[in-house]
Amino acid sequence: MIRILIAEDQRMLRGALALLLDLEDDIxxxxxxxxxxxxxxxxxxxxxxxxxxxxxxxxxxGLDVAEQLIERGSTTRVIILTTFARTGYFERAVKAxxxxxxxxxxxxxxxxxxxxxxMKGHREISPELIFGTIKEExxxxxREREILSLSAQGKTANEISAMLHLSYGTVRNYISEALNxxxxxxxxxxxxxxxxxxxx
Amino acid sequence: MIRILIAEDQRMLRGALALLLDLEDDIxxxxxxxxxxxxxxxxxxxxxxxxxxxxxxxxxxGLDVAEQLIERGSTTRVIILTTFARTGYFERAVKAxxxxxxxxxxxxxxxxxxxxxxMKGHREISPELIFGTIKEExxxxxREREILSLSAQGKTANEISAMLHLSYGTVRNYISEALNxxxxxxxxxxxxxxxxxxxx
DNA sequence: TTATGCAGATGACAATTGTCATAACTATCT
DNA sequence: AGATAGTTATGACAATTGTCATCTGCATAA
Lengths: 200, 200
Description:
The first copy, chain A, is an alpha/beta fold. Chain A is 51% helix and 14% strand. The first copy, chain A, has helices at 11-22, 36-46, 62-71, 87-95, 109-119, 127-130, 142-152, 157-164, 168-182, 187-197; strands spanning 2-7, 27-33, 50-53, 77-82, 100-103, 124-125. Chains A, B: Residues 3-119 form the Response regulatory domain.
């Protein structure tokens, strides 16, 4: 019996997946979490064989959870299940050494089969991601990302400088550099591009 | 037997919902669509009793579909099933006279029951939406919305003025007015607020 | 007819933003 | 020690943005 845990904040999907997987004879859904924090603590206490992690969840993202599981030397295998084929997300998942990265756009029928294959030691990656991704690296460094994120929240260069204890000019330099790398003509365009690629 | 059609672009969710509903003795999923256009043509040809429509789909949104069904005098009952509790969406759905508006954040178990109740002539609205929404009207008029949308794509005031055959100053006036209404201190914040409320 | 209101335009002003050249200070590598 | 690279800072400049008061048509209602 494969014991699995589902972490997904959208209740309808979480419930439907749990039901669907429970119909399989060899799979048992032992727990469900609606945010990253809960997922982490349930995985620790329940020790499931596999966990299905959404990325964009409250409190902690699925990627955060995956990284912390590695740190703790957990034996639970991780399958990321997300809407986003964003290169940034995928790269981070690969670095965190997850066993699977599936898209919510993929077929339902394949999910159970993917779980079984992961149990056998295979890696399961949505075919959309296998080609044409690795080349698109995140061009932004940590500072640029941090500053652009704050800017994306509507913060002003001045506010950001106060928050990060940097000078006004430095903040603007970083934004300028980021926009240059993203080939964007202003903050708004830059934010669009970066968000869309999962670089923020 | 209640014949239903599901329109939802996310394949995993669509598949899971179809399976879940097909398990019910009195419900039969007669069709699935992955965009609004397909939904419309399948509803016309299959004449299901109920259709489940996602809002944010390619080609045509679920709201577009609902509105066109009314126009055509279709007898198929409509349940909107969406992630978004945005007031703008909800208002539009109410105006289109849909029979249900459920959130994907709601419980899976209730879905089949909601469908049965809709068949009996009830209206099904997610409880989150019943209170505290109607008052939050979209404060932006058509022009302001149009201009802020273009701005959200990274367009400059100058570019927008050329696109809409308005003067540079007029465009900035509209943006200023929109920001004032949204209580935002700059474009970026304004865009965030408006998008989050479904006002764009 | 006057009044009222709306869509659009103009001009002026200050603040913010985007760009660039340059420099100081570290830390690291050779 | 010298070379190199990364981080932070400055100053200067132009362009863009945000705000306001004011003005022109134009339609429509009193």
